[in-house]
Every structure is written in structure tokens, then in C-alpha cells.
Amino acid sequence: MPRLTAVRRFVSNTGARIYRIACEALPGLSARVYLILGAGPATLVDAGSGEGRCTEQIVAALESIAEEHGEDFQPRRIERILITHAHIDHIGGLADLVGRTGAQVGAHPFDAPVVSDWDEHAAVFNRRLLDFLEQAGVPGERHSALLELFGFAPGRMACVRVDFPLDEQHPLPGLRVIHTPGHSPGHVCIQVGDILLCGDHILARTIPQQWPETLAAFTGLRHYLDSLKKILQTEGTRMALGGHEPPILGVRRRVEEIMAAQERRIERVVEIVGGSPSPPCLVDIAQRIYTRQQGFFELLALIDVGSRVEYLEQLGRLEVANRGELRGGSRQPARYRLSRTDSRITTIAPVGEDA
Ligand SMILES: [Zn+2]
Ligand SMILES: [Zn+2]
Hints:
Elements: E1 8-11, E2 17-26, E3 29-37, E4 43-45, H1 54-69, E5 80-82, H2 88-91, H3 94-101, E6 104-107, H4 112-116, H5 118-136, H6 143-150, E7 164-165, E8 176-179, E9 188-192, E10 195-199, H7 221-232, E11 239-242, H8 251-275, H9 282-289, H10 295-314, E12 318-320, H11 323-327, E13 336-338
Parallel strand pairs: 4-5, 5-6, 6-7, 10-11
Antiparallel strand pairs: 1-2, 2-3, 3-4, 8-9, 9-10, 12-13
Helix pairs in contact: 7-8, 8-10, 9-10
Bound molecules: zinc ion (ZN) (2 copies).
One zinc ion binds next to α2.
């Protein structure tokens, strides 16, 4: 188990106190949950996974805040729990924490259905994931094992009602909500004065996982890159605190690094497709990039590469080489080549001007 760091306190330029709580969300993955005091009612941002000792660790940390930081605070005073996005490591602990505090839950309308009906969402997602694996060129006999590894199992989390929408149309006193779709459809960042609680949209060390839009609308690199630009346009952010990993002090620099890394990853796909003797499928491309990934990480890598190929198709730089075959109902994987007809929008010179 990773060593958990102590509760750490941050103060925004508006005087809000933000307490960072570390918990072991999944084996080998620690997550951060934040308590905000002094910006409207006592607010918790994210809820951990609810698995292993995660909730216990969050509650123990919350209980320590009064004494260690001199706050007049008890966990039962938490009035609202805001969800940055509906991934299991951020929402699995909701039911238990709502039960202990009676807090109201806020989530973006695009992610709220996952919180309130995990099982139905899991069924739809797994169906789409199967189609994705088939199109990607993963042999049929591996599908069910990979699906199981992915962990979108029915009954994995106890569902809770979402009480209010967390979006840009419904301002909350003391906080600003910024919708940042990409890593998940309803991902939001929450601005508290000059501190940005950025969930998994921006991480200090890791390039956040991406998914093709065929798996979920409002994910995909196109949305993600737009959402990164949105953060660049957000004025007055001194520091960002993510759902994992250390605080980010140079937010602009980190966003630019992530954009540059995505750019390199995209060009790497173009290079591989362009240099292949015959059109590769997603599995072929992923194996060239990630030579050592196995099991769960192999699946995440494949999904991430899927988001890049999809984006390149949207840009008109890649196309499916065996479209006719697929149209005829073949269950062959989709194979990609560089676009022969460059469908990128070009500027057309007005009539009468020299080209
Ligand atoms: Zn996430
Ligand atoms: Zn996460």
C-alpha cells in the first residue's frame, strides 16, 4: 500500500481553507479528496472509491482537522459533496459519506447518470467496449477477460441520488464551476479564488487517460484539448490541486506540457500508420507504442491510442482502409491508412485573386 501523506492545508486568496486528504482508492492508486471551508457551506470535493480502507481513511482525516488545524468542524457538518467526475476512484465512497453526513450531492448532468445508476451505465459502457475491442483487433477469446479487468461490474458501487447540477449554468456561492469534458463527459474543475481543484483533467506527473468518443460522448481528444484551452483562458489561477499526484504550481506550464505531449503522441500514430507496409489495426499501433504493457494497462493503452486515431480521423488525416469490407458486415478489425483525400478545411482564395 502506498504511504499516505498527512492532511495538508491550502489557503486561497479569498480566504477559503482547502484541506487535502489522501486515500488509497484502488490497489496502488492513491487519490485526493478536498474539504473546502470558508467558501459557502462546508464542502467535500470527491468521495474516494469506497473500496478497501478508503472511506475509513477519509473519515479519520476529516475528524483530525478540528484538532490539528484549529477548525470548528465536524464531518457531519459537510453540507454538500461535489463530484469532479464519475470515475469509481472519485465516486465509489459517495453512498457511505452521504449516509454519515446527510450532505447533498452535486454532479455535472453528463456524469450524474453514472452516480445515480451505475449498473445501467456499466451495461451500456461494456457493450460499447466490446464493439471497440472487436474493431480494434483484439481476439474474441480475450474480450471477456479484458472486460472483467476493466471493472465496470454491476453492483460495484452503491448508487446515490444527485441533488443538484454542478455546471456553469448553476453558480454556487464562493465557487466557480468550469465544465472540462474529455477525461469524462461531465468532468468539472472547481475554482476557489486562485486555487483550481482540477480532478483528473490536469495531473502533475501523468498525462490523463483519454477515451474515444465512440465509448462515451463528450470524451475524446477533441473535447479534451478544447478543455485544456479553457483552463489556459481562466485568469488568476495560482495553483491547481488534482485528484491524484502533487499540487501543480505552474498551471499554465503544465497545461502546455500536456498539450505538447498529446501533439507528440498524435504524430507518433501518424508516423506508425504512414510507415506500415500494410494498414495496421489499433492493436498493431498500440503494440508499436506500448511494448511492455499488459492486462489492465494494455487495455488502457489501447483505449488511449483509440482516442488518438479517432481524433486523426476527425481531422481528416487518417482514414479506414477497409471501409468496404466493414460495410459488408465483416467482423474484421478496422485498418487505418493516411488519408488519400485530405479533407482538412483549407482557405479558398476569393474569386479574382491569384492563388
Ligand atoms: Zn478519472
Ligand atoms: Zn482519478
